Amino acid sequence: MPIYEFYCKDCNTIYKFFSRVVNTEKIPVCPKCGNPYLQRKVSAFAILSGKKGEDAADEDMPPIDEAKMEKAMAMLEKEAEKIDEEDPRQAAKLMRKLSDATGLKMGAGMEEALSRLERGEDPDKIEEEMGDLLEEEEPFILPGKTGTTGKKAKPTVDETLYDM
After folding, report:
1. Counting C-beta atoms within 10 Å of the first and last residue's C-beta, which end of the chain has fewer, N or C?
2. Residue 93: which of 81, 83, 102, 78 has the closest Cα?
């Protein structure tokens, strides 16, 4: 018995719906605002299991080279064990390596924050001064995206399981 996820643009929320049968055609209405035009989302299971199909084409996510990403994450994990948490330059260097290894470019706010870390500035001071900007901006610019802050905030996830 599957659980389907749908996104409501009006509420900026992802909802989970339980179905007693496999049904890839039915689209429920938003449980909060009644919007009948929810967008089906790919569940974490489908992403991790490598399922592909029409539903996998999420407009906000470009195709990701999984082998490249796994290699980058393994490198990051190994190097993270060695960094001195008191040295902001090392943290910045690690982020640069992650960006280089994955091919993802950083947004303007993240670039500025990393430049300041590379100069040895206090991370708490950077967070205090740039926190709002960093929260509003996507940290990495995905291919084909501009990285502007005019974008909607990340959707919330309603953990309630609704009947479909």
Report:
1. N
2. 83
